[in-house]
Amino acid sequence: MVPFRAGNGIVKNNLAHANEYRDWRIFADYAYLLIAEARKVCTDTSDFEIKVDGNVYAIDSTTIDLCLSVFWWEKFRKHKGAVKMHTQLEVKTGIPTFIHISDGSVADVNFLDLIEVEAGSIYVLDRGYWDFDRLYNIHLNKGYFITRFKNNTNYRRLYSSKVDKSAGVLCDQIIRFNGHYAKKDYPEKLRRIKYHDKETGITFEFATNHFELPALEIAQLYKQRWQIELFFKWIKQHLKIKAFWAILKMQ
Q: Which residue from 227, 203, 224, 202 is spatially nearest to 213, judged by alpha carbons?
């Protein structure tokens, strides 16, 4: 790469070439070092009302639109370019702990294959991550998940617990899946919680492998998932991409 000198410009092709052949892991390691330091600084979690052991992570993704005439290599649709930013956000501190950039057409649920499940931590997911095999992997690694049921899920109720309907909890059940593939991929019992949010008027059905937390706290933890939406909003308001130096290689 041509060294930078005062008064001289840096050719894009040289930057792209250098970054293409430089080991990216040095930057990844440095990023994780900064994340670890940030998590140490943000130790005050007194504003987090729910007292749970372990970390609470919200997982989701957002699509970042790109100008197709500039980023021709990242074609998302016929007249649109995009990449997808898959994110794991630590809810208690509001700090993203793992981000993966993929092609814009990659399914959200594939991100679960990349995360390292922490025993005792809780992973809050939307319905886009409804995958029996991947959820069972979280369970096998002694992690907990909270997600929403997909419509027409085939299951049977084993028994129900008493609920406080005045708090919005409509039911708290232990279930098993009925379908052949569902039973094969997730053979254990699961907890189903039906909750009516009086503020929004929306009724939610949650699935979780956490059997100890009160049903109301499960619903409150799912509400914390919206923190990742606020993070995405902040990113899109402040992130202005003009070029990817590590990928852009002029022909």
A: 224
Residue with tokens 């899946």: 177
Q: Give the N- to C-terminal CA distance of the chain in Å, as an integer.
A: 16
Going by C-alpha positions, the residue among 46, 138, 34 that lies closest to residue 92 is 46
Q: What predicted TM-score, i.e. pTM, was given to this entire model?
A: 0.81
Contact assessment for residue 142 and residue 119, using Cβ atoms and an 8 Å cutoff? yes
The answer to whether 168 and 197 are in contact (CB under 8 A) is: yes
Q: Which of 47-51, 56-60, 80-84, 97-101 comes out lowest in average pLDDT?
A: 47-51
Question: Mind listing the pLDDT tens digit for each residue in 21-76?
Answer: 777 777 777 777 877 777 777 666 556 667 788 899 999 999 887 765 555 555 55
Phi, psi of 110 (to 5 degrees): -65, -20
| Helices assigned H by DSSP within the chain | 12-21, 25-41, 132-140, 180-185, 215-223, 226-238
* Contact between residue 168 and residue 193 where contact means Cβ atoms under 8 Å apart: no
Q: Are 114 and 128 in contact (CB under 8 A)?
A: no
Which of helix, strand or coil describes residue 235? Answer: helix
